[in-house]
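User: I'm putting together a small comparison set for a docking exercise, and I want a reference complex before I start. The sequence is below, and the ligand is 2-phosphoglycolic acid. Could you produce the 3D structure with the ligand included, as structure tokens?
Assistant: Of course. I'll restate your input first, then give the structure tokens for the complex.
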Amino acid sequence: MDYAPLLRLLRGSSLRQLQVFEAVARLRSFRKAADELFLTQPSVSIQVKKLSEAVGLPLFEHVGKRVHLTEAGASLYAACREVLEVLGRTEMKLADLKGLKEGHLKLAVATTAKYFAPRMLGVFCQRYPGIEVSLKVTNRERLLERLHANIDDLYIIGRPPESPDMCFEPFVPNPLVVMAARTHPLAGERGIALARLAEEPFIIREPGSGTRMAVETLFTAHGLKPRVRMELGSNEAIKHALAGGLGVAVLSRHTLALEGESGPLTVLDVEGFPLPWHWYVGYPSGKELSVVARAFLDYLQGEGRLIAELPVSGPEDLATGALSRR
Ligand code: PGA
């Protein structure tokens, strides 16, 4: 592509404005772009306005509550994706020349993986202190959007898309269990039937969550429907609702990482549980991985499971790589 005309057109616009525009165009929302970039919504609007002034045409139109790209916006979006991708690849090549001494790792993980992914990153960063990392935590649906838009280096997800264009491997078990307050009438009962569980009020994650998808798939396969009392967008909020006696929920056992089963919640003994899910790590198959991303992937596949299963205040020898010698 000859970038000269585009550069002339965008003279005076910053790369930051292009990044902000790219996020709004991809997410079709000023609010979601602001959340993703840790900016306020007014500052996103200002950046887009400046860019639109530089181009001399409106880039978005609002129909009701929805944001649409204008024709000018759509062309700029296509060019922008190309420019940002070329810059990303160049940055990667330059970083690769420096090996693991420097570089950047962009990791995106499903909400529930936040219970172990930061620890894994922490150990990796201690081993390679020159590497900068960024971690995006979002639900399954948003994660898939990022994956298709090729935003990050690597992704951790509960159930990767079934497509030959994806390169994902399981690396850590993700048992899904039924939780309730320790004082719940079903606590301590053995072999609870799924049909019996379906009579209980359920607290369920938001649409787009992988955990919710697992619950719905299971109940539908048994011709049942959970009695949903409440829908919440956070595992921690669900745990508080359970502790308050509001019902039962299916969550990853990882959500008990800090308090274990000695807190106010207990795991119910329901037939067919725990569901033997796994965490997968991967990337779209055409993607060229940087040296840093490749090293992180190898590290997760070699030591990820052990780190995820360690108590939260794990031994200090993690950083030195002593785990791999066990
Ligand atoms: P969730 O993801 O946090 O969106 O429920 C878990 C998953 O990907 O299975």
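The first strand starts at residue 60 and ends at 63. The radius of gyration is 23 Å.
User: Thanks, that's exactly what I needed.
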